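ESCALATION

Customer reports they have been waiting on this structure for their group meeting. Please prioritize. Original submission:
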Amino acid sequence: MFRFSSLLGVALAFTVVSTAFAQEVRITSPANGATLAGPDVAISIAVTGTTLVPAAEATRLEDLHVHYLLDTDPGPYLSGSTPVPTGNPNIVHSAALSYTFSGVAPGAHRVVVLLGYSTHAAFQPPVAPSVAFQVGAGGAPTQLPRTGDADSQPGAWLAVAGLLGVALGTLIRARRSRRF
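Update from on-call: job pushed to the front of the queue and completed.
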């Protein structure tokens, strides 16, 4: 029993650790709060833990791509139950590491980059970094969005909990073995 439970705990901890940071999307430009000349705005990202596949070429559910959402609330899509729609010029489905929105009006804007499955449902747990920026002269955006960086890594807490569980289980087993 000791060996099986120890191996199970270690396997669970490694599984959680390996998936906690498996997929990451970071917006590399523009910087949050930047003022851009416009009217064309280029968004660049870095992706780790997966290879993006154009949605039209996806053959498996886990063939991931990103959705660039300009001034669009990602809320309805974050649960993964509602697919990200097509046909909206402010929502772009892509496997590219950059996308340029053309003709962006002066003022405050926000782009969310949402990682999604081939079905256009959001990857779970959601990976959705965002950036707020200003086009043309003007003040700062009235409300800066959450970047999602801290919330996009809930698996890290699960990994810590798994490792603590392994340590606690080992301690309990060690105390029990002293009694006999």
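Sent to customer with the following note: The chain has two helices and eight strands.
Escalation resolved.
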